[in-house]
Amino acid sequence: MTLISTTLLNRVKEIVDLSHPDQILDSLDFLLEETLKFDENTGTEFGLDGGVCCFSQKQNLLRFAGAKMNLYYKSANEIFELKGNKKSLGYVTKPHPQSFDVHDVSLSSSPTFYLFSDGLTDQVGGPKKIMYGKKRIIRKISEISDLDLTIQNISQDFEQYQGENRRRDDISLFGFRVSNQVETV
What we know:
There is one protein chain. This protein is of the alpha+beta class. It has 2 domains: 109 residues, no CATH class; 70 residues. The strands form 4 sheets. The protein has a 5-stranded antiparallel sheet. A 3-stranded antiparallel sheet has the order 2-3-7. The chain has a two-stranded antiparallel sheet with strand order 1-6.
């Protein structure tokens, strides 16, 4: 799905205004349906969850829209959650345009941003064989001020927590800060 989505995103950027994350998600959803030609009779379902961030240097603003993915950001040692919509991209044919909520965040305080997939939160592990969980990730984001160290700490803790348990899903963890140049980890 990652390769297909990357190819489709290259098509999306040619047809959509890239300052509207909701339109990017809708176009990606439409192109996934078109490319995979969903058929209710076959029972084949492919899709993904995702989030799109757009930046305006002129307005010093980040715009976010999510499809079953949330964006978290830390500003002045406080953690905020921007909730994506409770719908995935792909999976079934649906009418378009699909609407996605758009959240705006001022970049004036130089916040750090984090996106992560449910593969991270839903992984079973630890001595009690329970899910890793969102609260554990949020706690680590809250406790560590350095972006690089936060991502490194979450990654190491996750590997240790998973232990010998089988990986249940694809895992994505992405952290970034917007300044004159985007810094990513």
